[in-house]
């Protein structure tokens, strides 16, 4: 009787175990690799939109509406830590420099594409004149350096900062390109945009290039960086774009030009145009960069430097000139980056350009994620099934053991 009872209990328990094991476990199914959990995206300020504008510059033209916000990719470009909101530092490491006013910033190794440190790298802010780098890249692709551009009245009447184009003046593309990047001329930006097909066409080409590079936080609204409906970027994207631009010899030469004799127009003498980047006078090994400002964007900055065989670059967005100038803040970030590189700290992310196969995929086709944190699609998950299986086996073993002990205590 004891043997038969024990056998029946073991058979029933084994049958239950087989039934449990036979239940499909999606993450462990044969031929189906385990799916990673959906990424958790922190609820960060400005994840979708920049801070509200302070003026009317972003109001759409009559009959038009403001563009919808760019979707937030489900997986942050550059690695998991690029989704963090605050300081993103290698640890343990010295703290970041003091008196940095930028809402977002990033330090990169230009040779490897590694992100050495950052602050809120995917927060969306306005680029101001940093967007001229995208226009410059379009010009490099499409216009020969010796092509002559005849300035129009519309070019000459742009809202300044301006270099001083004169309607009817003849200018070589290479001269305009250098003036665009050295002095951030909005009149020059309008002339070059017209030369590549018109302002709307130029903006479309700039956005297409940003998409090919994998800059999913970026949308140009004007060729000059003057604020317009939907204008947005991030420190991550501008670092990606600036790093790509610095690998183009004509761009690198343009931002490294300190003085340029600019044509004065019909009947007028040439005059000097100076580079507006203050680090040329104060930072050893400086390679060049780009400055920007609008009331809505505040101060923006990109710059690169070389030291002991390393080339680093920094981008700052939404910075202020007090308590120290933005160029001085950039210098401190460069020093910090060189110190991290010398110490051999681990990168916190990477600047990754899209491959040709994925570069053509529109932002609207990318999977989106809510700004709030998300959870995995299967609430039970692989871990839950494993734990359940182990517990079930232990319960069955316990039942068999208890039953046998009970039989042993019974009188014959």
From TrEMBL:
Under the GO molecular function aspect, what terms does this record hold? serine-type D-Ala-D-Ala carboxypeptidase activity
Alphabetical UniProt keywords: Carboxypeptidase, Cell shape, Cell wall biogenesis/degradation, Hydrolase, Membrane, Peptidoglycan synthesis, Protease, Signal, Transmembrane, Transmembrane helix
Record bears the keyword Ribosomal protein = no
Which part of the chain is the Peptidase S11 D-alanyl-D-alanine carboxypeptidase A N-terminal domain?
96-320
According to the record, the signal peptide region is 1-29
The entry's active site is 129, 132, 184
Q: Where does substrate bind?
A: 290
Where does the record place the region Disordered?
Answer: 44-79, 349-370
Polar residues composition bias: which ranges? 352-370
What does the record list as GO biological process?
Answer: cell wall organization; peptidoglycan biosynthetic process; proteolysis; regulation of cell shape
Question: Sorted alphabetically, which InterPro entries does this protein's record hold?
Answer: Beta-lactam/transpept-like, Peptidase_S11, Peptidase_S11_N
Reported EC number(s) for this entry are 3.4.16.4
Where is the chain membrane-spanning? 384-402
From what superkingdom does this record's organism come?
Answer: Bacteria
Establish whether keyword Protein biosynthesis is in the entry: no
**What protein family does this chain belong to?**
Belongs to the peptidase S11 family.
Q: What is this protein called?
A: D-alanyl-D-alanine carboxypeptidase (Penicillin-binding protein 5/6)
Question: What is the organism lineage in this UniProt record?
Answer: Bacteria, Bacillati, Actinomycetota, Actinomycetes, Pseudonocardiales
């Amino acid at each position: 009787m004891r043997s038969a009872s024990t056998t029946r209990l073991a058979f029933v328990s084994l049958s239950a175990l087989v039934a449990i094991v036979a239940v499909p476990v999606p993450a462990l199914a044969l031929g189906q690799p385990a799916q990673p959990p959906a990424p958790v995206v922190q609820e960060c300020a400005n994840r979708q939109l920049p801070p509200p504008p302070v003026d009317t510059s972003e109001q759409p033209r009559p009959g038009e509406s403001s563009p919808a916000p760019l979707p937030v990719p489900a997986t942050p470009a550059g690695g998991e830590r690029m989704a963090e909101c605050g300081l993103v530092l290698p640890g343990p490491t010295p703290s970041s420099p003091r008196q940095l006013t930028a809402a977002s910033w990033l330090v990169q190794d230009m040779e490897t594409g590694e992100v050495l440190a950052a602050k809120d790298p995917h927060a969306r802010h306005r680029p101001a004149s940093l967007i001229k780098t995208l226009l410059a890249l379009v010009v490099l692709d499409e216009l020969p350096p010796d092509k002559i551009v005849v300035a129009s009245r519309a070019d000459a009447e742009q809202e300044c900062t301006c270099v001083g184009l004169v309607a009817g003046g003849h200018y070589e593309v290479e001269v305009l390109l250098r003036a665009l990047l050295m002095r951030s001329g909005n009149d020059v930006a309008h002339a070059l945009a017209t030369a590549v097909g018109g302002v709307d066409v130029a903006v479309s080409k700039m956005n297409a290039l940003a998409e090919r590079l994998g800059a999913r936080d970026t949308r140009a609204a004007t060729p000059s960086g003057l604020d317009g409906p939907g204008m947005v970027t991030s420190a991550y994207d501008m670092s990606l774009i600036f790093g790509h631009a610095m690998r183009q010899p004509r761009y690198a030469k343009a931002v490294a030009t300190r003085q340029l004799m600019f044509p004065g127009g019909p009947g007028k003498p040439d005059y000097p145009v100076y580079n507006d980047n203050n680090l040329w006078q104060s930072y050893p090994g400086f390679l060049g960069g780009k400055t920007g400002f609008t009331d809505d964007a505040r101060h923006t900055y990109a710059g690169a430097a070389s030291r002991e065989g390393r080339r680093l670059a920094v981008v700052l967005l939404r910075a202020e000139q007090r308590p120290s100038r933005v160029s001085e803040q950039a210098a401190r970030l460069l020093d910090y980056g060189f110190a991290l590189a010398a110490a051999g700290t681990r990168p916190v992310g990477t600047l990754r350009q899209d491959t040709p196969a994925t570069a053509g995929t529109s932002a609207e086709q990318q999977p989106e994620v809510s700004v709030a944190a998300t959870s995995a699609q299967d609430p039970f998950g692989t871990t839950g099934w494993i734990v359940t299986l182990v517990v079930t086996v232990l319960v069955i073993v316990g039942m068999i053991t208890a039953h046998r002990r009970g039989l042993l205590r019974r009188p014959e």
